[in-house]
Amino acid sequence: MKQKEKINIAVIGCGYWGPNLIRNFNQISSCSMSMCCDLIESKLDRMRKLYPSIRTTKNYMEILNDPEIDAVAIATPVLTHFDLGKQSILHGKHVLMEKPMVSSSSQCLELIRLSEEQQKVLMVGHTFEYAAAVNKIKEIIESGETGEILYITSTRVNLGLFQPDINVVMDLAPHDISIIIYILGMEPNSVNAQGKSHYQTEIEDVASITLNFHNGTIAFIHNSWLDPNKIRRTTIVGSKKMLVYDDVNPQEKIKIYDKGVEAPSYYNTFGEFQFSYRYGDIYSPRLEDYEPLHKEAKHFLECIRENKKPISDGYSGLRVISVLEAANKSLKNSGKAVPISKYRKMVIDSSPLFTLPAQQAQ
Ligand SMILES: NC(=O)c1ccc[n+]([C@@H]2O[C@H](COP(=O)([O-])OP(=O)(O)OC[C@H]3O[C@@H](n4cnc5c(N)ncnc54)[C@H](O)[C@@H]3O)[C@@H](O)[C@H]2O)c1
C-alpha cells in the first residue's frame, strides 16, 4: 500500500467481541479507528458514548464505499463472515476476520484466492496464536524439553452462551484446534467427534473431538456449553516432561512437570516387570504480560504496512475450518474417523508452518 500516516480501520459487528477490537485499535497510534457498524442502534450508541470521534453506521456498505477506509475487522456471527469478507476484499480493503473464519473450506479457498488476486491482507482472529503462554509452549516443545508429544487434552467448557446458529464445536473448538496446530506445527490426518444436542435441535451443546496426527500424536478436545465451571485447560504429555496450560489462572498460566514414566527395557519374569515413575520439579515460566488481542491487532497493521503474510493467515483459517468440517461430519456419523486430505497438499505447499513429510501431501 502507499505509505499513509495512519491506517484507517473500521469494525463491523459491535456485539460482545467487536468492542474489544475497537478498544485495541483505538489504543494503537499507527492507525485511526475510524468507523464501526452494527445493525442494532443501541450497540452503536454505546460505541459513540465510549469513542465520540468514531463514525457509526448501520449499513456496512457505507464503510466499504469509503475510499479512506483501508482495512476492515469483521466481528459478526460466523454465517455472515463469508459475504462480508468477500465484499470487503472486492472493495479493496484488507480484512481481519474473526474465528471461525467462515463456514466451509471452499469459502476459505475463495477468500484466500481473492485476497491474493487483489493483493490484500487476509488474517483470521486466532487470538491465542498471539498469546504469550501459547508462544512459550511452542518454544518449549520446539526446544525438545518435553520430548516427543504423546498426547494433548484440551478442555474449553462453561455454562452457555448457547448459540442459535452454530454448535459448540464451531463456537469453542476453533481456539483449541488453532492452538494445537500452531504449537505442533502440523495438522491432523483424521478427526473423530461425538456430541449431543440437549436443548436445541441438531445444535450440539457438548462435544468431544479427537485429532489423530501422522506421527502417532493424539489430541482430545472437550467443549461444552453445559458445564458448571469455566475451564480453559490444555495438558500436554511429552515423553520427557508434561505441561499444563491453564488460561484462567492469572499468575501461573503454564506449569511444567518433570514427571514421566519408564517401562523396563528388558525383563525375564513378571516380578522384574516394574514401571519406574519420575516425580521431579515443577516450575512455572515467566510470561510477558500483554493482551493477546493487542498483539494481534498490531500484527494486522504491520502486515498491511509491510506487505507481510500474517501468522494466522487465510491458510491458517483453512486448516482450522478443515478440522471443524471433518469434526462436524464425524458428529453426524456416530464418531466415524474423517480424513483431512482434500486440501492438505495445497496447505503444505503454501505455509511455512507445516512439517509433514512429502508423502503426506498426496
Ligand atoms: N477471537 C476471540 O477470542 C473471540 C471471542 C469471542 C467471539 N469471537 C468471534 O467474534 C464473532 C462475533 O462474536 P460475538 O460474540 O461478538 O457475537 P455477538 O452476537 O455478540 O455480536 C455480533 C454483532 O454483529 C452484529 N451484526 C450481525 N450482522 C451484521 C451485519 N450484517 N452488519 C453489521 N452488524 C452485524 C449483530 O447485531 C451483533 O451486535 C464471532 O465470529 C465469534 O466467534 C472471537
Keywords:
six-stranded parallel β-sheet, nine-stranded mixed β-sheet, Dihydrodipicolinate Reductase, domain 2, disordered C terminus, 362 residues, alpha/beta, 10 helices, binds nicotinamide-adenine-dinucleotide, 15 strands, Rossmann fold
Could you walk me through the main structural features you see in this protein, from its secondary elements to its overall organization?
By secondary structure, this protein is α/β, with parallel strands linked by helices. The protein contains 10 helices and 15 strands. A 9-stranded mixed β-sheet has the order 14-13-12-11-7-10-9-8-15. A 6-stranded parallel β-sheet has the order 3-2-1-4-5-6, sandwiched between helices. Strand 2 (31-37), helix 2 and strand 3 form a beta-alpha-beta unit. It is globular and about 80 Å long. The two termini are 37 Å apart. The chain binds nicotinamide-adenine-dinucleotide.
